[in-house]
Each structure stands twice: as C-alpha cells, then as structure tokens.
Write a structure and sequence with these properties.
The chain is an alpha/beta fold. It has 11 helices and 12 strands. The protein is 36% helix and 18% strand.
Length: 320
C-alpha cells in the first residue's frame, strides 16, 4: 500500500479507465460532491467513470449524484473511494469492493489506508479541498466540476463557519465561485432551509436534551419512535448533529441517532478541550479532532452511558 502526493495521484488517475467511485454510508455533501466532481473530471479526460449507487442519498444530495450513477451490470476495472476513512463505512453494495480499492482519497486523521494506493490530507477541512487540487492537475476546473466541489467544501465546514475552516478552504471556495456556479442556491438549500418536520425534530431533541459536566456536555437523542412520530425522512434528519454545538456553553455535543432497534450512531462535535476522534475511538469509531462518530449496539441507556464514559475519559476536567 503506497501513499501518494497530489501530483502522483493525478498521474495515477490518468492511467485508469472504466472506473467505479464509492461513497460512504449515510452520504453527506462532502463524499457526494467529491465523487461527482471526480467522476466529471475523469469523463472530461475521456474516461468511462460512474458512481456506485448509494441507497441513503437525501433529497439535497441526490441531484448531484444522479447524473453519474452506474448502470446496472457495470463491471469496473478500477475502484476509487472518496471521503471514506475505513471499509467499515462502505454501504452494503460496496462491500464486495472492500479488498480491491485501487485508490482511496480521504482527509480523516483516522483514515486506515485500505487502498492499494492512498492519499490523505488530515489538515483539510473537507475532502473536497484535496479533490480540487487533484482535479486542477488533470485539467481546467469547469463549472460542472466546481458546483459539486462547492457542495463538498461548504457542507463539511458548515458554510465556512466551523473551526476546521482554513485560509486554503476559503481560497478553494473563491476559485470555485469564480467559475460562475450558482453557489447561492447551494447555500440556501443546505444551510437556510428546514422542513417543518426537521424543526419538529429539533424541538423534541432540545426538550429531551441532557446536560453533564457543568453544562458543557450535551446529549441529544433521535430514537426511531421520534422519527415515526413526525413521519420524518432521512432528508429531514440530515446533519442533526449540527444542533447541539449551537447551545450556549456546550463544547461537546453528542447526537445519538437510532438507526435500527438498539443500534445507535453517535455523532460527537467538540471544541478544543476534547478530541472527538479519541472519544469515538474508545467505541470503535473515528473522524476528526472536532467531529467524529461511532456506532454502539445497546439500549439507549447503555449506549448513553458508554459514550458519556468515553467523553469523561478524554475531558481533562470532567465534572460529572
């Protein structure tokens, strides 16, 4: 397994054809935007490239994915993953490719280098920044590439508000905007529009929010009955983990989302006091210093106690 530079990655991609690009489970704007832009860039080089269909796309991300979805029966010669830290985050239909990823492109500190060739940039706020640099080596950044890349970079930075945003992030965003894309609509759809069901979910989450560590740690829950109560869809529940960090005084927010009965997806968002990756690593997960996740199979009470214990272990002055 080799680790490549941007130039080496671009050169390798020039040798690929009949390419299938993978995105992760519960796909966000970064994995979808990266995959769509990379696919468009490869097609501009005359390559045959598709995205492996992902059954968990939301209403917001699906339009960027749809033009590049692989037809049934497509047999790839090469497989590339975008924004996937571990094969454990492969959707079910991607698992047959777990041992044959030719190139893995990622930005998570917990990246497991599972590809035959790998490139990772842990300091990047979004994998879209890395994809931008790779595509810039392959040809001009056209609006077709720029729009999904803007989705990638903007969504992983909370519209450039999260602490992971860097000067390079803004430089990439500016370059993308200069291509003439309709970034205003992206900002409106992803950051300034919420369904009524989404607002009902947020209200219920706040009503039942639990606070620990002198109010610095918040635990918010989204059990399956709550989704049923409001007839909420995956689109309504997209990025619910952004709610907790907005609470004044909270520097560690845990959103517990029940995926199946007694299977909880933990999304941890932290400030500099607590490393979210170290917290989630206690329970088999990973991610970034300020944003990480893991999955726990247990009752709500047991799952809550497990994640709280992990937080307490990595909070230097946890007060209970």
């Amino acid at each position: 397994m080799s680790t490549l530079t941007v130039a080496e990655t671009a050169a390798l991609l020039r040798t690929f054809d009949n390419i299938l690009i993978l995105t992760h489970v519960r796909p966000d704007g970064d994995t979808v935007g990266c995959a769509a832009a990379l696919c468009a860039g490869l097609r501009a080089l005359g390559k045959t490239a598709y995205l492996l269909p992902n059954p968990e796309l939301t209403d917001n991300t699906a339009p960027y994915f749809a033009p590049y979805a692989a037809p049934e029966g497509f047999v790839p010669e090469r497989v590339v993953s975008t924004d996937i830290a571990t094969v454990g985050l492969f959707p079910e239909n991607a698992k047959p490719y777990a041992g044959r990823v030719d190139l893995a492109i990622d930005h998570h500190p917990s990246f497991e280098h599972f590809g035959r060739a790998n490139i990772v940039r842990p300091e990047a706020a979004a994998c879209g920044e890395l994809i931008y640099d790779i595509l810039a080596r392959l040809g001009p950044i056209t609006p077709e590439l720029a729009l999904p890349l803007y989705v990638a970079v903007s969504t992983d930075t909370g519209c450039f508000a999260y602490a992971n945003t860097t000067p390079h992030t803004h430089a990439v965003a500016a370059a993308l905007m200069q291509t003439g894309i309709n970034y205003q609509t992206v900002n409106k759809v992803f950051f300034r529009t919420k369904s009524r069901k989404r607002l009902q979910l947020e209200s219920a989450m706040m009503n039942d929010c639990l606070f620990y560590d002198r109010g610095r740690v918040a635990i918010l829950s989204v059990p399956l009955p709550l989704m049923t109560r409001f007839d909420a869809t995956e689109s309504d529940a997209e990025d619910l983990s952004a709610l907790g960090p907005q609470i004044q005084g909270v520097d560690c927010a845990v959103t517990m989302r029940e995926l199946r009965p007694d299977v909880w997806k933990m999304s941890v968002r932290t400030g500099p006091r607590i490393n979210a990756t170290e917290v989630c690593r206690e329970l088999g997960g990973g991610g970034h210093a300020a944003a990480a996740g893991c999955t726990v199979e247990a009752s709500w009470e047991e799952a809550k106690d497990q994640i709280l214990a992990a937080v307490a272990k990595h909070a230097p002055d946890f007060a209970g």
